[in-house]
Design a protein that fits this description.
Layout lengths: L1 H18 L3 H19 L3 H18 L5 H16 L6 H6 L12
Helix pairs in contact: 1-2, 1-4, 2-3, 3-4
Length: about 110
């Protein structure tokens, strides 16, 4: 899921950078690309996915173009923020993979 989200965000950032040189186009593209690279590496996944979610929501409501892809990517990045980095990520190697075990209640 991280790879799909990061690939889509990188592609979208490349399209935005190719589209124009104005600051309102360039700044979200650079921020999205940075968050996508962090997501791809699995480094600071919760922070990068929340940042990507906020950027995509901002782009969805600030531009006149079709907003469906922005909302889709925002939902995907929000899901990544809630799920965490996963076992095969830099976060798991650096900080350990968190596992929650539920115990049965004894009556």
């Amino acid at each position: 899921m991280r790879i799909v989200a990061a690939g889509s965000l990188i592609q979208q950032a490349a399209v935005r950078l190719h589209a124009g040189h104005a600051l309102d186009v360039w700044l979200p593209a650079v921020l999205t690309g940075t968050a996508a690279i962090l997501l791809l590496a699995g480094l600071w996944t919760p922070v990068a996915s929340v940042a990507a979610t906020l950027i995509e929501v901002w782009c969805a409501f600030s531009g006149p173009e079709d907003t469906r892809i922005y909302i889709l990517l925002a939902a995907l990045c929000a899901a990544l923020a809630l799920l965490g980095p996963g076992a095969w990520s830099a976060d798991a190697r650096l900080f350990g993979w968190k596992r929650i075990d539920f115990r049965d209640r004894k009556s």
